[in-house]
Amino acid sequence: MTLARVKGSVVSTKRSDNIRGAGFRLLEECDQAGNGRAEFLVALDMVTAAPGQLVLVAQGSSCRWTLVTDERPIEAMILAIVDQIDEQGTIVYEE
């Protein structure tokens, strides 16, 4: 999994995945403190993340292991909104 910050939305009126109720978000990959790395990706948003939030992202074939995404062409998916990151007893990120 990867940490990323939601930078915006990607709007698509025609889609081949047939997944209703989930949009796409533009994400910037981040370090454990939430600092951007200037590496961007687009991911299916299953948790309704808002711009600016830090999220956990799965990539690759594991994105197709849910009931909603099974056998769909999904390469990256937001799995969770991050509330806090504790690194060796020190909180390095808190929403």
Task: Briefly summarize what is shown.
The protein is mainly β and 95 residues long. The protein has strands spanning 2-10, 23-30, 36-45, 54-59, 76-81, 84-87, 90-94. The chain has one domain: EutN/Ccml (OB fold (Dihydrolipoamide Acetyltransferase, E2P)), CATH 2.40.50.220.
Can you walk me through this structure?
The relative contact order is 0.26. The model has no long low-confidence stretch (mean pLDDT 91). β6 (84-87) and β7 form a beta hairpin. This protein has a single domain (2-94), classed as EutN/Ccml (OB fold (Dihydrolipoamide Acetyltransferase, E2P)), CATH 2.40.50.220. The two termini are 19 Å apart. It is globular and about 45 Å long. The protein is built from no helices and seven strands. It has a five-stranded mixed β-barrel. A two-stranded antiparallel sheet has the order 6-7. The chain is mainly β and 95 residues long.
